[in-house]
Write a structure and sequence with these properties.
Blueprint: H1 10-18, H2 29-48, H3 51-56, E1 58-65, E2 70-73, H4 76-93, E3 97-109, E4 112-122, E5 128-141, E6 145-158
Parallel strand pairs: 1-6
Antiparallel strand pairs: 1-2, 3-4, 4-5, 5-6
Length: 162
């Protein structure tokens, strides 16, 4: 049985009603700046392994989709626990720097932004050792800005050793 998610809160509905429709349109400069600022904050949290800050970059419930499985994390605590192994793996592999390249940005609706990102993980010598690609659905939340609401893991590749 599929359960419908609760609708937006009254304040969000009112803001969405007043906002100009941008469904299917390209993002403006403000949206691109917001996406860039969000990705910097998210990258910083990932690199520091700050589980609470990582969770704060998500709005729950958040959907994670890979080619093998889908998972819904319904609470911030579940996001923290879900990323605990990821952070440990990054440390074990010696990732000390993280960079990203935005491949595409599109405005899906007045409060939704789709972003395709290629993340590059670097070792202590500055070498790129892993490239990962993701597609995010970001939701604009009134008092918190853009937050991850859904993630599609597109895969990655090990970078060639120099």
């Amino acid at each position: 049985m599929t359960r419908a998610l609760p609708g937006p809160r009254p304040r969000e509905r009112e803001a969405a009603r007043r906002a100009p429709s941008s469904a299917g349109s390209g993002p403006g400069a403000g949206t691109r700046r917001d996406v860039a600022a969000f990705l910097e904050r998210y990258a910083d949290a990932l690199l520091r392994g700050d589980l609470e800050a990582i969770a704060a970059c998500h709005v729950t419930p958040v959907l994670f989709v890979t080619e093998w499985d889908s998972t819904v994390l319904a609470t911030s605590r579940q996001v923290v626990e879900g990323f605990r192994g990821v952070v440990e793996e990054h440390r074990r592999r010696g990732y000390v720097a993280l960079s990203h390249r935005v491949e595409t940005v599109s405005t899906a609706a007045s409060r939704l932004v789709e972003v395709a990102v290629r993340w590059t993980f670097h070792d202590a010598d500055g070498r790129a050792v892993l490239h990962d690609r993701y597609r995010y659905l970001l939701r604009r939340v009134d008092d918190r800005g853009l937050l991850i609401n859904a993630v599609v893991v597109l895969g990655g590749s090990t970078a060639a050793i120099r």
